[in-house]
Amino acid sequence: MLYLSFIIKLVMIAGIFIKILLLINQVTLVVTKKIWILGFIIVAILLSFFFSISKVSGTSMEPNIKNGTMAIFFKNSFFGQNFNRGNIVLYQKPDGSDYIGRIVALPKESIRFDKGNFYINNNVQKYKVEEEYLAPDSKTYDNTEDGNSLDWISVGEYKYLILPDKRNGKFNIENQLINKSNIRGDVLTHG
């Protein structure tokens, strides 16, 4: 279903470009093959700059995104967009490998883990984060001896805390604080 809506949007974009080309060429009733081909080439070029398709490998985002699922990403490289809590993103680790995960904490926030629960201090209030998208029985633990953060951990000015939806143990939170520049794109659709 998600692919169908995406394909419909692509066809609409192609139609808009073809109408523009028709106006430029002042063709009223006859649509030539060249105009159609040129329209689709322009759409393909634009899509390659703004979108990326990637196959999800692994089970870290289950139950929401299954292993082998194709995902369409809106590339971040041109717009430097800000991301929201809950966004699913494609990001790059320092070793150059790509991962998919969910943004759970934003820049300039502080985080803390206690007994499998996740807390945020956004400099206005402190609150427990309800993560309804998590796999059943998933808990979030820091990579400390007891799995709890005793102190608040600062996310940083240009970083996001990105975690998988399927959490089967402790995380080294420092490794999950991802620079904004390493976020390659926002997931638009998957299925």
List the helices and strands and how they pair.
Layout: H1 2-25, H2 33-50, E1 51-55, E2 70-75, E3 88-92, E4 98-105, E5 110-114, E6 117-121, E7 126-128, E8 141-142, E9 153-154, E10 159-163, E11 170-171, H3 173-176, E12 177-179, E13 183-190
Helix pairs in contact: 1-2
Describe what you observe in this structure.
- The model has no long low-confidence stretch (mean pLDDT 77).
- The chain folds into two domains: 2-52, no CATH class; 56-190, Umud Fragment, subunit A (Ribbon), CATH 2.10.109.10.
- The chain has helices at 2-25, 33-50, 173-176, and strands at residues 51-55, 70-75, 88-92, 98-105, 110-114, 117-121, 126-128, 141-142, 153-154, 159-163, 170-171, 177-179, 183-190.
- The termini are close together.
- Helix 1 (2-25) packs across helix 2.
- Helices cover 24% and strands 31% of the residues.
Instruction: Give the CATH topology of the largest domain.
Output: Umud Fragment, subunit A
Which structural class do the helices and strands define? alpha+beta
Q: What is the β-strand count?
A: 13
State the end-to-end CA separation: 8 Å
Rg value: 21 Å
Q: How do the SSEs run, as a string of H and E?
A: HHEEEEEEEEEEEHEE
Shape: elongated
Membrane topology: Single-pass type II membrane protein
Enzyme class: hydrolase
Catalytic activity: Cleavage of hydrophobic, N-terminal signal or leader sequences from secreted and periplasmic proteins
Keywords: Hydrolase, Membrane, Protease, Transmembrane, Transmembrane helix
What characteristics describe this protein?
2 domains, 191 residues, Umud Fragment, subunit A, 31% strand, alpha+beta, 24% helix
